[in-house]
Write a structure and sequence with these properties.
Layout: H1 14-27, H2 31-46, H3 52-64, H4 69-112, H5 116-144, H6 148-164, H7 168-182, H8 204-233, H9 238-249, H10 256-270, H11 276-287, H12 296-308, H13 310-313, H14 315-341, H15 345-349, H16 352-380, H17 389-404, H18 409-430
Helix pairs in contact: 1-4, 2-4, 3-4, 4-11, 4-12, 4-14, 5-11, 5-16, 5-17, 5-18, 6-16, 7-16, 8-14, 9-14, 10-12, 10-16, 11-12, 12-14
Length: 431
Amino acid sequence: MKQPAPASQHPPGLAQAVGFWLKLGMISFGGPAGQIAILHTELVERRRWIAEGPFLHALNFCMLLPGPEAQQLVTYIGWRLHGLAGALTAGGLFVLPGALVMAGLSWIAAAHGDWAPVAAVFYGIKPVVIAVIVHAVWRIGRRALTGIVPAMLAGLAFVGIFVVGLPFPLIVAVAALVGLGAHWLPRNPFARPGGGEAPGPALGTTGLLRLTRLGVVFVVLWIVPVGAIVLALGAEPFGDIATFFTKAAFVTFGGAYAVLPYVAEAAVYHFYWLGPADMANGLALAESTPGPLILVTQFVGFFAGWTSGGAALGQTMGGLVAAALTTYVTFLPCFLFILAGAPYVERLYGNRLAVSALGAITAAVVGVIANLGVFLAQIVLFPAGSLDPIALALGLAAAAILFLRPLPVHWLVLAGAVAGLALWSADLAVA
C-alpha cells in the first residue's frame, strides 16, 4: 500500500497560496465530499503542504463543528500555513467565486424566473435535486446509522420536524443531550472506535484570554456592519436577515442539507421572503455552482432584499445588499470556530463526549435531511396537488445514475437543465 507523502519542509509563500485558494474556489464543485477529495489530492498528495495525519485530524475536527466542513478545513490549512492572513484568504477565496456566481443567478431567478426558458431550466433541475437529497440520505445514513438506537433517533427526528413541527435547533439540542448521556452507558451507540484524549496543548489561562479576545472581535465584527446596515436601511428585512442567518450558522451541524428545512420553513412561511418553488430553485442553483452548498442561504437573502428591501434601494440593489449581508453573517462564525479551535484540534477531536454528541446529532440529521426531501418532493412532484409524471421520471433517472454510476452533481444538474429545455422545445414544436 502506498504511503502518503510527508508534508513539504518548504511551505508556499502567501502569494502562491492565494493563487491556489482562488483557483480552488473556482473549481470546488461536487459538494463537501468532492471538495474534500480535491483538497486531499492537491494539498496532501501533490503539493505536500500538509501531511496526511494533520489533514485527517483537521477534517474530523471540522466535522464536529457547525458550518460547512470543506470551507472550515480550507480555513484551518490556511491558518497552519500563514496564520491569520492565511486563514482569512483561504476561507474567503473558497467562498468568493461561488458567492459572485450565486448573486448573478439569484438576480436571474428573481427578475426572469417566469421567462419560459428559465422556467424550463428550473423544471428540469428540481427533480435532480430531489434525487441528490435521496442519495445524501442514503450516503450519510449508511455511515451514521450503525445500529438500532441511531436509526430510531433518525426516525424520531423526522417525525419531530415533519409531523410535530419541532424547530431544527431544538432537535439538534436534544440529539446532543442524547449523545452526551449515551457517553456514560456501558456500550455507547454513538461512540467512534478508538478515540480518547489525543495529545495537544491544554487550554490554560493564556488560551482562555485568547478565546475571550476572539469572542470580543467576533461581536464587534458582527455589530458594526450589521448595525450600520440596519440603521441606514431598516430592520426589515436586514435586521431579520442578520439575526436569523447568524442563528442558523450556529446550528448547521451536518451541513447545509440539515439546516435547509429550518431555513426554508422560516423564509417561506414566517418571513415570506420567497415561495416554496423559489426555495427549490435556490437549492438547485447551489448544487450546480462552486463553493459550499450553504450558499443557498445567499439566494434566500437575495430574495429577501428583492421582495422586502427594495423600497429604499430598488429591488436589485436591495437584493445584492441582503445577499452580501447573508453571506457575511453565515460565514463569520465559521472563521471564529476555526481560529478559536485551531491550536487544540487533536485534543478536541479526541474528546469522547464531543464525539458522542456529534454522533447523535449526525443520526438525527439523517431524519432532518429526509424531511427536506419530502418538503421538496411535495413542491416538485405534486405542483398542483396531483403527480407530475415527467418530473417523477426525471427524478428517478437522476437517482438511478447517482446510485448505479455516480456522476458529479454539477454535471447531473446540467443534464437536468438540458432535459428541461428539450421538453420545453418539444412543447413549442407540438404547439
